[in-house]
Amino acid sequence: MLPEALERAVFGMYATHALHLADTHGVLRFLLGRDGTSAAEMAAALDLDEETLTRLLIALDALALVESTPSGYRLPDSMAPFVDPASPRHIGGFVHHLVHGAAARMPVLDDYLRRGKAAVDAALPPPFDTIYATEQSTAAFLHAMWQLSFSVSGELAALAGLEETTHLIDVGGAGGAFAVAALERAPHLRATVYDLPQVEPHLAATVAERGLGERLGFVAGDFLRDDQLPAGDCFAFGYILSDWTDETCLALLSKAYRACPPGGRVLVMERLFDEDRRGPLATAVMNLSMHVETQGRHRTAAEYTGLLARAGWTDSRVARSSQDKHLVVAHKL
Ligand SMILES: C[S@@+](CC[C@H](N)C(=O)[O-])C[C@H]1O[C@@H](n2cnc3c(N)ncnc32)[C@H](O)[C@@H]1O
């Protein structure tokens, strides 16, 4: 018998793949709202090989992702919001990204360990050139970002308190997850997503789907090169600073500070490391992922507060959501 932590590490690869298979073949969706179903019933209904499905379900039961009961398999109640494709918290897109994207990039960590990231990456194009290399990869990335960000954004918009804000600039706002949640919450608000030109049609689709018209605009730009950000009185940075080095974060926060009138604010929305950097697990693991996929890292709340202060922002406040993405808000006097 292996110690529990070692067992989890050794067999983690099977856990991710079993979850991905059960999601993509509709097994978890099938169990939603049903109280007990046999492997044979499920195999027939989903047109899957019964023996393979039986083995998959046995593994999922041992992983506590499904429960085997005398009347058949069922889904633990706590799982439902995460495995229902209709739920904003569905993790299918993210697990797909882990299996089909992140896993293939893992071997580069071996290279980084031996030669360092700077030397290995010297010959590579910047991260978003690769992520947006094709229309398909652009759509897949923006879909995964929406899934990761939309469900928590309503909560973050409430924590931000947008009553006094008139024009939100969502810097690197992607398909508009936070901007949409902010507009839904604050009927007086206007928002602009400022992002790379490849994002524009995806934001336009969001505006059309949600009937937001003039309330949600798009400005194409490159925040690394542009001297000025679009003008507004609140600047949102959701999962942006974790893509970049401290030096770049400082430059971005300074550009936002210059574009912001006195009395305006900045919202940094990120995973946060505990101050002793021993967790949470998701932040610790995604910090490795940021190393592989971006030039950034995850930080503690104190590190974000320090960067904000260096860029001129004052009066920082940390507000934690019930999910993984939290808020650090600061002001321009
Ligand atoms: C990790 S995503 C975050 C998306 C969104 N803010 C969220 O919280 O879900 C990073 C975003 O930054 C944008 N981005 C990357 N480099 C950029 C640049 N040089 N100028 C403007 N936007 C950029 C990407 O297109 C993408 O939408």
UniProtKB/TrEMBL annotation:
GO biological process: methylation
GO molecular function term, any single one: methyltransferase activity
Segments passing through the bilayer: none
Pfam families named in the record: Methyltransf_2
Residue ranges constituting the O-methyltransferase C-terminal domain according to the UniProt record: 126-313
UniProt keyword annotations, A-Z: Methyltransferase, S-adenosyl-L-methionine, Transferase
Keyword Nuclease found: no
Stated name of the protein: Methyltransferase
Organism of provenance: Streptomyces cheonanensis
